[in-house]
Amino acid sequence: MHKPVLLKEVLDLLITDPSGIYVDGTAGTGGHSEGIAKIVCEKGGRLICIDRDPDAIEFAKKRLSPFSNYIDLIRSNYKDLDLILNDLGIEKVTGILLDLGMSSMQLEASGRGFSFLRDEPLDMRMDPSDPIKAKDLVNRLSEYELSRIIKEYGEENKARKIARKIVEERKKALIETSLQLAKIVSSVVQDHSRRHHPATKTFQALRIAVNKELDNLREFLEKVPDLLEKGGRIAIISYHSLEDRLVKEYIKKWENPCTCPPHIPYCICGKMPVMRRVTKKGIKPKEEEIIDNPRSRSAILRVVEKI
Ligand SMILES: C[S@@+](CC[C@H](N)C(=O)[O-])C[C@H]1O[C@@H](n2cnc3c(N)ncnc32)[C@H](O)[C@@H]1O
């Protein structure tokens, strides 16, 4: 069962008004949603739960059934939150949560090839109606493109070697399963000093590329200040530096949007800060949480408030 990461911290920092409207943009198995629902539903608040994975929506629906009168469950992409709120007749919300990445349910039980430890079709789509599967990328992209994706989204320093090996192997037989790919990657990444499985970074890279994870996050972050009411908050849990870097980039922009050249002594662009940090630094899970839930070890939570 997927355990919600940094649950107490999220609830403490996100919920400023229990009678407000909240959005869980990555509902997954509904762990954070349930925590939010327990606080806001009995105080007249409302929760909108979004996930792009239909299995996640089905799962969350059952888990959140005691709160169904106060919850909207929507299968969609959080990047379209402005359109979703518009459809619901809501202009602004009190709080938004994003818990990025994939759930344990997707990793362990989706049958969609997210795990290098299972022999499953190499799919990796969170939304099964998306057109491109991981096997399409692995079997069709040029060696250069594969290498770029593995380097950029996996921060894998053996990306070129891995891409070369993939291209060599796919000439013999199409790469159809997660285990087939994991074996190919492991045959060229034999670095025993690594803490993780040799295929960890390559799988991360393909998942990010298939699901356009960074594009979605960027598109969403562009919209955030317009979607929050004054004093409303956004909480984002990232699991790798690419996501966290993007979140930090936007926090900086929100806090200091001034575009005046540095040599001008005072601001003439007139752009004022729109958000402020709630905690100076990102919040990481405590040792006990990491022991209890090793998936949380790379998590970092940042919370920002609309001014
Ligand atoms: C880490 S899990 C969330 C787990 C959840 N907080 C819980 O307590 O169970 C991330 C979820 O976000 C969903 N997801 C990822 N990108 C998404 C997007 N752009 N729009 C909507 N859902 C997305 C995934 O399908 C997955 O279910």
State the main characteristics.
307 residues, Rossmann fold, DNA polymerase, domain 1, 2 domains, seven-stranded mixed sheet, globular, binds S-adenosylmethionine
Give the termini distance in whole angstroms.
Answer: 37 Å
Tell me the β content.
Answer: 5-15%
* Helix/strand order: HEHEHEHEHHHHHHHEHEHE
Give start-end ranges of low-pLDDT stretches.
none
CATH superfamily of the largest domain: Vaccinia Virus protein VP39
Shape: globular
Helix content bin: 40-55%
CATH architecture of the largest domain: 3-Layer(aba) Sandwich
Specify the number of helices. Answer: 13
**What is the CATH third-level topology name of the largest domain?**
Rossmann fold
CATH class group of the largest domain:
Alpha Beta
Description:
- This protein is α/β, with parallel strands linked by helices and about 300 residues long.
- It folds into 2 domains: about 5-100 and about 215-305, Rossmann fold (3-Layer(aba) Sandwich); about 110-210, Putative methyltransferase TM0872, insert domain (DNA polymerase, domain 1, Orthogonal Bundle), CATH 1.10.150.170.
- It is about 45% helix and about 15% strand.
- A 7-stranded mixed beta sheet has the order 3-2-1-4-5-7-6, sandwiched between helices.
- Strand 2 (about 45-50), helix 3 and strand 3 form a beta-alpha-beta unit.
- Helix 7 (about 145-155) packs across helix 8 and helix 8 (about 160-170) crosses helix 9 (about 180-190).
- The longest helix has 15 residues, at about 215-225.
- The radius of gyration is 21 Å and the shape is globular.
- The chain starts with 6 loop residues before the first helix and ends with a strand.
- The model has no long low-confidence stretch (mean pLDDT about 95).
- Bound molecules: S-adenosylmethionine.
- S-adenosylmethionine binds near residues 32, 53 and 102.
- S-adenosylmethionine binds near residues 77, 126 and 216.
